Q: What sequence folds into this?
């Protein structure tokens, strides 16, 4: 019963389950699985937006609608290469931390963060060069909203990476045993990357 | 009779901390606190949504629009629909899931307690935003909020509506991640997936629907917000946009949403019936897997809400067939329930009355649902009171009855006290009569030509409308005995034993109310969740209240 | 056994005698009602079955006071479960095929339905959301023609031109009917009995839905997308025309009447309604008059509908006629009508949606 409190144990702070859960019952770390489920849900937002885009595209006789100013392909292509490469780079960090190499982790994460930032700058530069605005026509609106929404995710990814870098300053925070943060940031980054590839094909190639 | 659990030998190192009342107003990570927070908050919004409904019915008591202005009427029905769905049924389902899942699977808490608390704390702001919008400028485009109308009825109100739904949608997604992971990964080791209580099965199906559907609604709302606030024209035909795309995205979520609202209660009914009929559930696996089938089919039927809109012929036929097929897995459940109680030894307490009332009323809504799926017929009754009747039969008769049944059934567990049965029975009778009186006449109204969402109507519909209005007043009154019962029993009700119903699922094998980390020691299963009647020849009858439940409950110190 | 027979008979009886549908004013209506009767029969049977079981349980399977034992431990019965899976499957298949057939007979599969002229797409200058649409020459067809919406010609009418064609325009909060062959523009719909009719549906501002309850047909009118309804009225009389899609505060008042007339009466109405002056010279004043008559369904015979709305706004019956001037969207619409509702282009182009946004 609730009333039967053992005063010796009452001091335990139930708010903090890390303390409260004794080792013999600790459930396995489910955070990565949770993140996967979350990314599954996230990809449904993108899927919804992609299908909406494809529908608009299918309903219009010509797409982009006649009169839409041309876009340049070179800059986004470079951006794509940067983002895809960064996905390989961030994976090195994972390998490094599994060997307890925190320094390697820091280096690879820093490079990834910089590449992410470059990608975002490139995107903003592209926006500034475009001859159409958000409300010019349906194509322009979908273009900005899709790339913008993805850009937001890149931004969040960079923030995640920076957070991991910040924590990695503390010696021993990440180790070959304990590196959920690293894996989470990496997984998220791969997700952002995959979404971009689809986006790039939809918006620029098709 | 044995219980589902037996004590594990290893003693627990767990502490009991007493739960203080103010914990319920804080960012508390205990799933039981969160579950109650959800339930109480949801009921609060139910009272608001119900008051709006009462206003709607008062307006419709006469053909003229004399009680509120037509503009206000549209805000009333928009807020009524939105609040009932997003702030009452969905959070109430989440509340039950929060309270019950960890107890049922023998876990100490949800997989991600902090995220769980976050998910809850998004609900009150989302709801308050909507309620406050009533005083600022309220949304008026119906709970479906179809553009281009929703782009024209006022930026502030519509903006509030969009952001409120984005918040509650996010909350719903975070909650669903927790349910899914907890059910899949945190069962006690002896609980194989086929020994899992049916409520967990139905929550698994629900969580899947939420995770697939809600993000698409978020996508639609984001685009709608751009149209509304930034002047784009995704859904605005004026700029070359397509309002039909919104309808597809909206219903891709909002059809599954109706199963998000009813599946948890299907699960609750599957728990309640065997306990009070003292018989095993009939066809465990069929009922378990039918939840998954319903959620899969639920994802491919959405355009049945758009038969008269921009849906071409072949799509109409496709969605008609998929929609009708949902009757099959639902029928499996209904017939399984009937077979469960058939030949049982049924105690007609409030929980059981509402559970059987659920079957009775839900079936009517289900049958009209299948009728609506038939395209030629739906073309006639779409957007009429026939649809309003259908949706209340399934939502009120299904979800609300289910929630009441669940509250009565788990009340002793949650509060440690028994409910007053007399008040519970009065509540049931009034609700049952009021509900049929309110919504039955709407079928005829719709068939005869009364369209929905109108503040004033043709005088020839007056008498049936007045019948419905009387019914709705009975419904409002019916809530009073429930409220008295809940408050009084919580304070002063007879003390409940740990397992007053002699139930077998794990939540009954711990104390009432459960200790802070649920179980003194984690239980080990010895029977299935519904093995009633199996061991009585060996063990004879069980003295009431003296449950041999070996639990972490009273042993304590 | 006996219970089964009673159940079947009761369902059959109720399926035919529910009296829940309005009169049938076309052949389509009879088809739909046949489907509905069948569904009512099946539905009643399922209802009686389920409620019967529940009521029997209520009386027969009560726990006796003091009896603390459990019921029999029956966990399932595969053959039984197969039966109650197979029967709904069969019902659903039959209903599906039946509905398909009715839908086909009504003309739902008519491939020519909705000769969609497409959304007019205009390039707007950046941020210039108030910029008007470009003229027809520079805009172009935006939509493919692959979406057939509505109910088209029934299988035996395919390829046959309809006897009467009427263009229907939905706007807040009125229906406007134009007879392109006759040059008539009206706030109410007149049709000759037993003649095949095609309605071309369009919306001007928001989505409306054109519903004829006595004909069991309904189709949304969606701005930018054209749809059609094709049917043959078979019963002389006057019938409500209802807007079924929420379209704003006065959605409930957006109604008109359909008069199905004997051919002589119809011809007489046509003669009376033909514009005396040539269409092109119709003055703005005439159009203004039209706008005020159709506003809020003013032309409907039971105009007392509108009194509540007027009451609400503190207007008397006289001022009712001017009601649309006082409402923000309506004043837009009024403008639009007088300036854009050109007789030959009976479907005015909606530029005021944006303006009113
Ligand atoms: C809890 C919510 C809930 C549930 C469970 C359902 C269940 C179903 N609904 Fe309903 N529905 C709504 C909530 C719900 N609905 C709402 C809110 C709307 C209106 C939205 C709006 O426009 O505002 C709506 C509208 C709606 C429409 C659109 C109507 C229109 O706008 O024109 C349709 C059309 O197909 C439909 C169909 C169905 C079907 C086939 C089921 C099936 O799942 C029912 C299955 C159950 C049974 C059939 C009964 C049990 C089965 C048996 C006893 C077996 C034997 C039976 C047969 C063989 C028939 N619903
Ligand atoms: C779970 C969902 C749910 C629930 C429970 C209800 C409950 C009720 N609903 Fe509603 N309803 C919807 C979901 C729901 N509704 C939806 C989705 C729509 C469509 C909206 C749209 O078109 O956009 C709708 C639309 C709708 C309409 C059609 C409006 C229109 O188209 O013009 C009507 C009309 O009668 C109505 C009535 C009622 C009534 C009388 C109740 C009653 O059952 C309510 C009874 C409950 C209470 C009264 C509250 C509890 C009581 C107290 C706490 C006591 C104190 C209160 C008072 C003294 C008032 N509802
Ligand atoms: Cu037009 Cu409702
Ligand atoms: Cu649906």
A:
């Amino acid at each position: 019963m609730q009333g039967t409190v053992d005063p010796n144990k009452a001091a335990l702070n139930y708010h903090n389950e890390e303390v409260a859960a004794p080792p013999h019952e600790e459930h396995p770390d489910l955070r990565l699985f949770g993140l996967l489920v979350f990314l599954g849900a996230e990809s449904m937002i993108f899927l919804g937006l992609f299908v909406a885009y494809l529908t608009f595209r299918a309903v219009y006789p010509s797409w982009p609608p006649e009169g839409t100013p041309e876009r340049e392909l070179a800059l986004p292509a470079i951006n794509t290469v940067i983002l895809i490469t960064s996905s390989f780079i961030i994976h090195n960090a994972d390998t490094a931390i599994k060997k307890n190499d925190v320094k390697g982790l820091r280096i690879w994460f820093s490079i990834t963060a910089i590449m992410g930032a470059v990608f975002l700058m490139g995107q903003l530069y592209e926006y500034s060069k475009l001859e159409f605005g958000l409300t010019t026509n349906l194509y322009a609106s979908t273009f900005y909203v899709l790339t913008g929404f993805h850009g937001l995710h890149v931004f969040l990814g960079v923030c995640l990476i920076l957070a991991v870098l910040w924590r990695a300053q503390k010696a021993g925070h990440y180790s070959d045993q304990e590196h959920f943060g690293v894996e989470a940031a990496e997984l998220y980054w791969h997700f952002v990357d995959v979404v971009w590839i689809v986006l790039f094909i939809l918006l620029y190639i098709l | 009779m044995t219980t589902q659990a037996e004590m594990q030998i290893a003693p627990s190192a767990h502490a009991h901390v007493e739960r203080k009342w103010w914990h319920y107003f804080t960012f508390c990570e205990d799933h039981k606190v969160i579950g109650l927070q959800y339930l109480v908050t949801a009921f609060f919004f139910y009272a608001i949504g119900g008051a709006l409904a009462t206003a709607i019915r008062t307006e419709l008591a006469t053909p003229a629009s004399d009680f509120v202005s037509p503009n206000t009427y549209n805000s009333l029905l928009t807020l009524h629909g939105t609040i009932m769905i997003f702030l009452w049924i969905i959070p109430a389902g989440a509340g039950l899931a929060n309270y019950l899942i960890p107890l049922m699977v023998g876990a100490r808490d949800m997989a991600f307690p902090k995220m769980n608390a976050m998910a809850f704390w998004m609900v009150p702001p989302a709801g308050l935003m909507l309620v406050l919008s009533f005083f600022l400028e309220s949304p008026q485009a119906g709970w479906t909020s179809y553009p281009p109308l929703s782009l024209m009825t006022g930026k502030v109100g519509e903006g509030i509506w969009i952001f409120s739904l984005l918040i509650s949608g996010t909350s719903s997604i975070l909650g669903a991640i927790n349910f899914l992971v907890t059910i899949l990964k945190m069962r006690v080791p002896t609980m194989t997936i086929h020994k899992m209580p049916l409520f967990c099965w139905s929550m698994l199906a629900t969580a899947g629907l939420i995770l697939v559907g809600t993000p698409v609604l978020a996508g639609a709302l984001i685009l709608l917000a751009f149209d509304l606030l930034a002047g784009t024209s995704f859904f605005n035909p004026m700029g070359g946009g397509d309002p039909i795309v919104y309808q597809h995205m909206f219903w891709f979520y909002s059809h599954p949403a109706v199963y998000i609202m009813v599946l948890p209660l299907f699960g609750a009914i599957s728990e309640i019936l065997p306990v009070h009929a003292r018989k095993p559930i009939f066809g465990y696996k069929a009922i378990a897997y039918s939840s998954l089938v319903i959620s899969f089919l639920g994802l491919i039927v959405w355009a049945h809400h758009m038969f008269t809109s921009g849906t071409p012929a072949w799509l109409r036929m496709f969605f008609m067939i998929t929609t009708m097929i949902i009757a099959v897995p639902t029928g499996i459940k209904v017939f399984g329930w009937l077979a469960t109680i058939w030949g049982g030894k049924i105690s007609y307490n409030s929980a059981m009355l509402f559970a059987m009332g659920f079957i009775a009323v839900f079936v009517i809504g289900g049958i009209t649902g299948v009728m609506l799926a038939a395209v030629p017929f739906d073309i006639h009754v779409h957007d009429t009171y026939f649809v309003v009747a259908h949706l209340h039969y399934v939502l009120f008769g299904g979800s609300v009855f289910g929630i009441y049944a669940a509250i009565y059934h788990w009340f002793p567990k949650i509060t440690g006290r028994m409910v007053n049965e007399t008040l519970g029975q009065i509540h049931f009778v009034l609700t049952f009569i009021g509900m049929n009186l309110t919504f039955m006449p709407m079928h005829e109204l719709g068939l005869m030509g009364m369209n929905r969402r109108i503040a004033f109507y043709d005088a020839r519909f007056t008498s049936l409308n007045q019948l419905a209005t009387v019914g709705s007043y009975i419904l409002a009154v019916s809530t009073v005995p429930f409220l008295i019962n809940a408050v009084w029993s919580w304070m002063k009700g007879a003390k409940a034993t740990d397992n007053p119903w002699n139930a077998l699922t794990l939540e009954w094998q711990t104390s009432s109310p459960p200790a802070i980390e649920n179980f003194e020691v984690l239980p080990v299963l010895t029977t299935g969740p519904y093995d009633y009647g199996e061991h009585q020849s060996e063990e004879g009858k069980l003295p009431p209240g003296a449950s041999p439940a070996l639990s972490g409950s009273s042993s304590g110190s | 056994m006996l219970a089964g027979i009673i159940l079947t008979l009761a369902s059959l009886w109720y399926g035919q005698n529910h009296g829940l549908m309005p009169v049938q004013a076309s052949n389509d209506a009879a088809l739909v009602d046949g489907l509905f009767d069948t569904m009512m029969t099946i539905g009643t049977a399922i209802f009686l079955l389920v409620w019967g079981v529940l009521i029997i349980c209520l009386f027969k399977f009560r726990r006796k006071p003091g009896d603390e034992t459990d019921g029999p431990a029956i966990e399932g019965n595969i053959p039984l479960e197969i039966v109650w899976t197979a029967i709904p499957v069969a019902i659903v298949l039959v209903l599906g095929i039946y509905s398909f057939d009715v839908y086909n007979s009504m003309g739902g599969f008519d491939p020519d339905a909705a000769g969609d002229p497409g959304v007019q797409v205009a390039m707007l200058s950046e941020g210039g959301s108030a910029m008007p649409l470009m003229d027809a020459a520079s805009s172009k067809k935006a939509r493919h023609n692959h979406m057939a919406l509505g109910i088209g010609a029934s299988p035996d009418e395919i390829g046959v031109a309809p006897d009467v064609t009427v263009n229907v325009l939905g706007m807040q909060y009125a229906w406007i009917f134009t007879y392109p062959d006759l040059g008539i523009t009206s706030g109410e719909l007149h049709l000759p009995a037993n003649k095949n009719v095609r309605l071309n549906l369009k919306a001007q501002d928001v989505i409306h839905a054109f519903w004829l309850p006595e004909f069991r047909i309904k189709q949304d009118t969606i701005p930018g997308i054209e749809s059609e309804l094709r049917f043959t009225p078979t019963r002389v009389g006057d019938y409500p025309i209802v807007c079924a899609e929420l379209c704003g505060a006065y959605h409930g008042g957006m109604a008109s009447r359909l008069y199905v007339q004997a051919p002589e009466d119809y011809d007489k109405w046509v003669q009376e309604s033909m514009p005396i002056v040539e269409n092109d010279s119709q003055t703005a004043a005439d159009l203004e008059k039209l706008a005020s008559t159709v506003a809020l369904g003013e032309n409907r015979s039971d105009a007392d509908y509108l009194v509540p709305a007027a009451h609400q706004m503190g207007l008397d019956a006289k001022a009712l006629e001017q009601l649309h001037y006082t409402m923000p969207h309506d004043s837009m619409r009024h403008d639009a009508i007088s300036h854009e509702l050109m007789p030959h282009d009976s479907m005015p182009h909606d530029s005021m949606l944006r303006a009113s946004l």
Remarks:
- Chain C touches chain A through 13 residues (CB under 8 Å).
- The radius of gyration of chain C is 26 Å.
- Residues 114-146, 295-357 of chain C have pLDDT under 50 and may be disordered.
